[in-house]
């Protein structure tokens, strides 16, 4: 065994080593310096110049990389901050005692209403000082709240009820996505469609029966399907009423609620659906909540797009169906509170706006806005100007379309997914999709053109060009069954991936053809409709995944491949939406049958006993579809509404010659043609 080394030896050894190293380094420095001095002056200047240039370039790219990194980390914060499952402080709602006001309702053909000429462009953009964020919330009549004034969720009280582990799906969805009666005066109101009982009482096929002109032409058995949709709606509504009244979304498994903006999203999104379905009592109760409890004077950041399509669109649609001024007043209040979002250097609006303080901002990680978001608020803002005769809303909305129309960076009419609020230029160029972040841009080109009486040529031009771009770059067929699908283009590389969101396209294409656009668009619509149907049919649960990958392999294997992260189903509407359009225009009963299959699958795998429907995590596993414990507001606002309209024999119910549906399925009137 060796004796331990002496301390002085260690010190000496270390000291030697240090001095050795020091001398070596000094020597290297001196020799480098000598070499440098020996270089010709010109060469030294050139090297210094190059080094300075490199430094500047490094600094420049650092700031942009830093923004991206900051973005990534802030985005995580944002997702957390905006987690719709935040439990807001809950205030007791004193209002409830009053019985629902009687409701008289619409014939739901074109409602009579103020069709005002559009005025001059006078944008009024207000700015209020920022205030400290204060979340507040309201809830519905205590009598409706079985769980009373819950501090959090029932699931927290009873952990055993937290059955639903959420896998990557929801987080992923957030990353890619990306957001109504009254004492109605009898002379101004239109009648709601008859309730189920009233309908039964009416003679089937009787031309005199209200709202039933086309019944005789269609196959028997339809009323059962209609009633099944009403039942589904009542079941969903029951869950919402019992456990989430006045809140944004129902969490049906834990029998609690989730908050997003604190604006009663599900209730507002559902109002016109209830009106259309003739659910008068439910409608009156919800209307009472809007009257007594819906306040936009709250210090909360809302997403401009989501609030516009769901809340502003829902209120405007309800106003048109009922002629109840309450909805118009609420719409005006909300519209003016959203206006600060447009106060940007480029006039491309910020994604978020605080409706209480009047301040707006982009997401914290970027100064970009999502393209679909800024170009899918136009129907609503234009309609708000139309009914109020105040042009400020349509001016800001039209300006966005004007800017995007002339913007360089499109690819045969296809648009990138982001646009910068400072420069007004497209950003993250080179990625083209008809799915998340771009989808409703294409939908609203056509629908604005229709809304405005088919007079705005730029919109039509952009739409037609985009459809050509889609056909040229994004349409492919699968190897095995020759299914036509829409893929994505990423820096000139084709990816055979299609979001369920893209299934809005068959319906939109068909709507265009109905309005005089080229007949070959219908061929594409028919083929895509078949594909969207197969995205449901080929799954074990009969429900589509959020994203499908298609096989380009020749003639063998499956057409639709689903990746584990894409297996969720959020109760989305796009396929049944397109089925509705396809049936209205072709009368082919297969589209109804396909919709019926989808409704049955929703009932089998997503219906929650006691009330509500839930998103699921795995459409490939019928034994365990893995409920996610969330009922999105669009299930009531869109999915069930389109199913109802699909099965309704009244083909004049919300005639597509008179109404244009916004991207959240809220019908808005088509304006009369301008005087010649
Ligand atoms: C809805 O909010 C709207 O349909 C929007 O256009 C897309 N996302 C959901 C439904 O999937």
TrEMBL record:
Transmembrane segments: 45-65
Cofactor names: Ca(2+)
InterPro entries xrefs: 6hp_glycosidase-like_sf, Glyco_hydro_47, Glycosyl_Hydrolase_47, Seven-hairpin_glycosidases
Region: Disordered, residue numbers: 90-174, 188-219
Low complexity composition bias: residue spans: 202-215
Topological type in the membrane: Single-pass type II membrane protein
Biased composition (Basic and acidic residues): 144-159
Disulfide bonding pattern of the chain: 503-532
Domain of life: Eukaryota
Keyword Transmembrane helix belongs to the record: yes
Record-listed Ca(2+) binding positions: 663
Function: Involved in glycoprotein quality control targeting of misfolded glycoproteins for degradation. It primarily trims a single alpha-1,2-linked mannose residue from Man(9)GlcNAc(2) to produce Man(8)GlcNAc(2), but at high enzyme concentrations, as found in the ER quality control compartment (ERQC), it further trims the carbohydrates to Man(5-6)GlcNAc(2).
Entry protein name: alpha-1,2-Mannosidase
Originating species: Austrofundulus limnaeus
Organism lineage string: Eukaryota, Metazoa, Chordata, Craniata, Vertebrata
Gene behind this protein: man1b1a
